[in-house]
Amino acid sequence: MNAHTVAAAHDDHVHHGPAKGWMRWITTTNHKDIGTLYLVFSGVMFVIGGLFALGIRAELFEPGMQIVDPYFFNELTTMHGLVMIFGVIMPAFVGLANWMLPIMVGAPDMALPRLNNFSFWIMPFAFILLLSTFFMPGGAPAMGWTNYAPQSLQTGMAFPFLVFSIHLMGISSVAGAINVIATILNMRAPTMKLMKMPMFVWSWLITAFLLIAVMPVLAGAVTMLLMDKYFGTSFFFAGGGGDPVLYQHVFWFFGHPEVYIMILPAFGIISEIIPTFARKPLFGYASMVYALASIAFLSFIVWAHHMFTVGMPLSAEIFFMFSTMLIAVPTGIKIFNWLATMWRGSMTFETPMLFALAFIVLFTIGGFSGVMLAIVPADFQYQDTYFVVAHFHYVLVTGSAFAIIGAIYYWLPKWTGHMYNEFWGKTHFWISVISVNVLYFPMHFLGLAGMPRRTADYAVQFTSMNQIVTVGAFVFGLSQLIFLGVIIACVRGGKKATDEVWEGANGLEWTLPSPAPYHSFETAPEVD
Amino acid sequence: MSQTTLVEEKYHVPHAAPWSIIGIIGLFTLVFGGALWLDNFWMGKIVLAAGAAVVLVMMFGWFGTVIKESEHGLNNAQVDRSYRWGMSFFIFSEVMFFAAFFGTLFYAHQFSLPWLGGTGSGAKFPTHAMLWSGFSAGWPSNGPAQLGGHFQVMDAVGIAAINTVILLSSSVTVTIAHWGLKENKRLQVILGLLATVVLGFSFVALQAHEYMDAYLNLNLTLHTGIYGTTFFMLTGFHGLHVTIGAIMLTVILIRVLKGHFTADHHFGFEAVSWYWHFVDVVWLCLYVFVYWI
Amino acid sequence: MSISKLERTIAAVAGLGLALASGAASADSAFNLPQGVTPISHWVYGLHMHTFWICVGIAVVVFGIMLISIIFHRKSRGAVAANFHENIYIEMAWTIVPAIILIIMAVPAVNVLVKMEDYSKPDMSIKVTGYQWLWKYDYVNNGISYYSKLAEDSNRARMMGSRLSPFDVKHYIRDVDHPLVVPTGKKIRLMITSGDVIHSWWVPDFGAKTDAIPGYINQMWIKVEKPGTYRGQCAELCGRGHAFMPIVVVAKTPADFRKWVKAHGGHLPNKPQAGGATINRGRQPAPNATQPPPQTTPPGEKPQTNPPAHSGSAS
Ligand code: HEA
Ligand code: HEA
Ligand code: CUA
Ligand SMILES: [Cu+2]
User: Fold this and answer.
1) ipTM score for this prediction
2) I need a labelling partner for C189 at 20 to 30 A (CA). Which of A516, A519, C251, C293 fits?
């Protein structure tokens, strides 16, 4: 009606669609193209990181060294962590943001389209740099994704490659986050007030802020490592007045907000999916926003909970214990709000909803183990055992990754114009959700019973439990092939999707045709 | 949904971004060469230089395009706002980068040196007696192993004080230029900018002199324990930023001479002047925490 | 009653009977933290169970509510969606109640923590130094000092292609050549440090681990209640041999311990030593971090006698 034109003014010859040929993908500035690129990249990385994980699990099937050298085992662990975090979860969320943010705020595209292209294309190059280290003399980095000094300074030729690839990833993330912020703050349809934005948009606004705040700190941390190794500084060397623990402080000042960077967009996704399939508006919108903001704030003052055993002053241990536990409150608010959204709704259980429900249960379990880890004296026992590994796979795999999978099922019809196959989607869900618990639940027991993480070998009493875990790992990994199949089939064809796709769906993305046009909103839509 | 307040805006969506991939390939080559160099491969430096050259070409190309578009009026108020958000958050990311290094300085002061020197407390209390009993800590320090040998501290009232004055006045001159731009006083803009550029480069020159002094006369080097480490890393990264800022100011000066900006359309100018103020503020923190305390 | 009981049931239901079998093989539960043999380990075990059961309680409530709405508020049952989306009172409630629960968790934790961090008045002190990949123990009051590394049979079996089954080795990779020997019933202060990279000294039965940081000392105290042999291992990734630097502690009665000290050329100070001031410095750690030391196996082959190069009398 009284819509205001925010028409996309662009070169005349390409009005209706993408350029032809493969160069399209390299020079594209279209948010949907770039979103697709990110998602595909993340999928490829998931297979690579997953294969590393299967290598780990295969070696751990039995005590004794059977398949790989212990040093190579450490390389696998390190690269598995780095690839999964920087190559899978983060790019997947950025891909979803690229696809959905402009649509959800009623914009034609991202605010800085050329920068957007730049952010994406750095990633493959950064990972070429990182993965190439496997073929170098001395091998890939092998001291865990955290790269603790001084252990990491013993890395061979791979070391500067590791550092520079992290620098590149940092540039990519910061540029991407800047774009997200500019898009949300500057490209919204004029009638969309901040407190009207969809939760996914809110979650990304806050995530982008976190990214910009902490990626440079990571860059600083690895730069210090580089200086210590090659230029004789003594950041982390006691003889010169430095302290190896200083590295951990700087790293975790990045690292902890980083883990929330990997969960906040997931919260946003779940807050989109649940109301749709409960056919009921999201409960407690305002408190959801405040909860997100307080989690982000708290995430800056809890970093040392990863370092309880390094010997901090008593007052610091107590402070970090309290601040860490406090995060359970805003997180709980989110969980309860989702429950209240479902309460007295009219629910159906399509695949995205199934993943969302599994998210709530399994993320909560991961959150509980997180709270247990925050109890300092108990953490003295848990720290660096498989209990921690269980904790973070519950929040990362059944948390972040499940949310991503759910989001893909949720928006796939909008992207491709076809419905995916519901039967195979549900099959994928059930096999995944069962095998993922076979994979990770026994890790709690392993950790409590005394198996340290990052070990290539273990004492014989842990054998049977490790075998269960390995079986779970292979089943979970293979079941992702179903997912791949469902996606390919859906891209190729299938039942035509309606514009609204889901009966209870609400939000601007469902007002566009399916598949969504190349330029999202040429005129700003009305929001009420 | 108050339609009255809104102006009709056109948003410019550029279609292809060839410079971006060129830049990335350049960046990749650059760091690849750098890594090879650190690993002692002779071709490292060459690869690095090649990469740097490509990056430079990209910058000319990319910024050239943006400038051309801006001069053709393709950048309306909304694009301008996007650039502003972008630049502010970019500067914020730089602030956090420096924060990491200031954090290390703080940690060395407050935690690591007291533990090593026997005035710390808590679980690490015996560190001094058990491992470093001969060492008495204080700031500045090159640690219990006396890394780098005896050294002298960089003076806070010498070059550093002059540099403080220089940088502060350059912040003033760039503001004067900005006022000139807003009031269409061309001469004031040019002179203000010129003064800023000159001050900026003199800062860099004086700092180079200071480093020479440190290495040649004071035996203060990167190897001088935690003091040398924090001193050179903080001032070094800051100096790098001043250099970049001064180069950007030069570009802006050239654009002004070409008659680029107008009183109400000069984002390029403002971005660089924000950057310059940021560099200035970092210096003030540096001056207090690195030179004084 | 005990957590392992509950988990055993869960495990059985889930068809994880295999795990049970191995659980029965060792004295400790294969599912839970050991109760341990020091005051600290008992406190920590208590805290762990306390937190665990609170979490179980919350889980029952949260998942219960979820299950009810999944069962009853589904469209296929003809449920019609209500339209409420706010209620300030209930939102206040679910902010405040969790906060109170957290306090209930945190208070006992702080109590334990304060007791754990009381390093004063030890009966004896031992300096523990980690190296890639072995440990060194200096009895600062007794003048005994030696290295402790992976037992030879485990070491042979762990090699790739060794064709030796770990199952045939006693205490596979949890056995050392020369265990740490400590008296029971005494408050022993461990001063933990490292000679190269970060390690972590951990015996689960003692209830805590402490990182060994090059150039710094970290403290931890233990008071073993029962004579016996306790096993653990390095718990911080320290390179290729990280999985292969176990820790074995043999706790002896004070009388037996005295005998052991005498037999190994140590001496017995009469008075418990108070501060940490005049302690022998042992081997200087923290070689330059940028140039890690050659990974030598120190001359720890026939220790338990008193290698004069490495230690001396303190008091
Ligand atoms: C997505 C990522 C993610 C998320 C969301 C979290 C969430 C949390 N994490 Fe986790 N964590 C990691 C990823 C994540 N973590 C990773 C990767 C590591 C290991 C890094 C490494 O070393 O390699 C780690 C390690 C880690 C440690 C260090 C362990 C160690 O090494 O010793 C600790 C310690 O405190 C911790 C705590 C927590 C807490 C308290 C939360 C909380 O945010 C959880 C809050 C949620 C809930 C509590 C559940 C829902 C709430 C309710 C239903 C309300 C009622 C509940 C109560 C009153 C209890 N985490
Ligand atoms: C989001 C991040 C993420 C994800 C998704 C995963 C996924 C998995 N992870 Fe983990 N993991 C981490 C993050 C993640 N991880 C981190 C941060 C660490 C710490 C690293 C460190 O200590 O430094 C870690 C550490 C870690 C360890 C501990 C290693 C050690 O301490 O030595 C283990 C051990 O079992 C493990 C296992 C697995 C398994 C089996 C999966 C599986 O879910 C993977 C399943 C996926 C696939 C298998 C690929 C997809 C498959 C196909 C498309 C089909 C083709 C497949 C077949 C042919 C089988 N991970
Ligand atoms: Cu020593 Cu791990
Ligand atoms: Cu954390």
Assistant:
1) 0.91
2) C293
